[in-house]
Design brief:
With 249 residues, this protein is α/β, with parallel strands linked by helices. 35% of the residues lie in helices and 25% in strands. A hairpin with a 2-residue loop joins strand 9 and strand 10.
């Protein structure tokens, strides 16, 4: 089995009196693609934000390659460089060109040469079909193109794990496929990824393991074919039934 990359033990996350994640355990191995699904408000996006150190936690631990991720700690900036996160809302700087958006962190944070960073950025942009957009600005791109740029920006930091937070939720249906295709290719390359999504067909196609979360904890997990075809828990069955419609004719 591949080496253990991310280990979450007894994670607790609260906002005031509201407990969002309640004693969650999760281990992710190198090269594994874990898809996280569940109803709105169940803690999926909060889990990713905790992994990236964006949120303080109230209990438990999160470790990446044995190093504990603690919100506000001195070593957090260095650990964050090992975690690529792609948000639903792109988070691109509007005043910077595509290539400058991608190379900003490698040059400023990792102290790589601008020439080397730009060379890699162009190579990655070519792989996602956007090399010709390198000098354009975010306002000149479609939603799907912006999301592909955001993925390239994360990849350019050479992360150990990639986090995707419902990255197609804000896209028109025609743009969804172009983003999902990029993520499928990353999975084929052996990238370690944790993906929060509502795209069930995509989840089944890309996942090594599906995690179903409800009320802040893992209710069920398993191989995608087993989970989607024969869920074991009543709660998972209820959730998956939402995506099925009987013919009215």
């Amino acid at each position: 089995m591949a080496s253990e990359l991310l280990k979450i033990e007894q994670l607790v996350k609260r906002y005031d009196e509201h407990t969002v994640i309640n004693g969650l355990d999760l281990t992710v191995h190198s090269g594994e693609v874990v898809v996280v699904i569940g109803p709105s408000g169940c803690g999926k996006s909060t889990l990713l934000r905790c992994i990236n150190g964006l949120e303080p936690i109230q209990g438990g631990s999160i470790k990446l390659s044995g190093d504990e991720i603690i919100h506000g700690s001195k070593n957090l900036p260095a650990l964050r460089q090992k975690i690529g996160m792609v948000f639903q809302s792109y988070e691109l700087f509007p005043h910077l060109s595509v290539i400058d958006n991608i190379t900003l962190a490698p040059v400023k944070v990792q102290k790589r040469s601008k020439g080397e960073a730009e060379e890699e950025a162009l190579r990655l942009l070519e792989r996602v079909g956007l090399k010709d957009k390198a000098k354009q600005y975010p306002r000149q791109l479609s939603g799907g193109q912006k999301q592909r740029v955001a993925i390239v920006r994360a990849l350019c930091m050479h992360p150990e794990v990639m986090l995707f937070d419902e990255v197609t939720a804000a896209l028109d249906p025609e743009m969804v496929r172009e983003v999902l295709d990029v993520m499928l290719n990353l999975a084929k390359q052996g990238r370690t990824m944790i993906i929060v999504t509502h795209e069930m067909q995509f989840a089944e196609a890309v996942a090594d393991r599906v995690i179903f979360i409800d009320k802040g904890n893992i209710i069920e997990e398993g191989r995608p074919k087993e989970f989607f075809n024969s869920p074991k828990t009543e709660r998972a069955k209820q959730f998956l039934n939402i995506f099925e419609f009987e013919s009215v004719k």
